[in-house]
Amino acid sequence: AIERREEELAAYLEQKAEPLRKLGVEVHTIVQFGNPAERIVSYARSPEIDLIAMATHGRTGLRTVIFGSVAGRVLYSGVRPVLLVRPGKMDDEAKVLWPTEATHGEATTQ
Predict the structure, then answer these.
(1) What is the pLDDT of residues 8-41, one digit of tens each?
(2) In angstroms, what CA-CA distances link 23 with 17, 18, 19?
(3) Roughly what angle, to the nearest 10 degrees, separates helices 70-77 and 36-44?
(4) Between these two residues, 21 and 109, which has the higher pLDDT value?
(5) What does DSSP assign to residue 100?
(6) Beta bridge partners of 97
(7) For the segment 56-86, what is each residue's pLDDT rounded down to a tens digit?
(8) In angstroms, what CA-CA distances link 32 with 6, 62, 80, 105?
(9) 73: Cβ–Cβ under 8 A, 6 or more apart, which residues?
């Protein structure tokens, strides 16, 4: 059952990566199980990784303060630059989070 789920997830990620590859972007996909933030940060320590791109739900408030967020923990780890994208309509104005000082978690949107 776990192997089947891993294959399904790998196929899903490959499907999502294909349009980026067609644009000339080098994309690596991998399926791992465990604590998401820890697994992402651990994998991102590999020398061949230049950037972590991930979607974020953009939650704010008490829930995020108490539970944290995967994107936040990855961003604040400082292991690699992180591109956070909020899923939404393609015609919405793009917002990109640019870390300005990873050690303090400061960032700006443009």
Answers:
(1) 999 999 998 998 899 998 888 999 999 999 999 9
(2) 10, 9, 7
(3) 30
(4) 21
(5) E
(6) 109
(7) 776 666 556 555 688 888 888 989 998 887 7
(8) 8, 29, 19, 26
(9) 37, 41
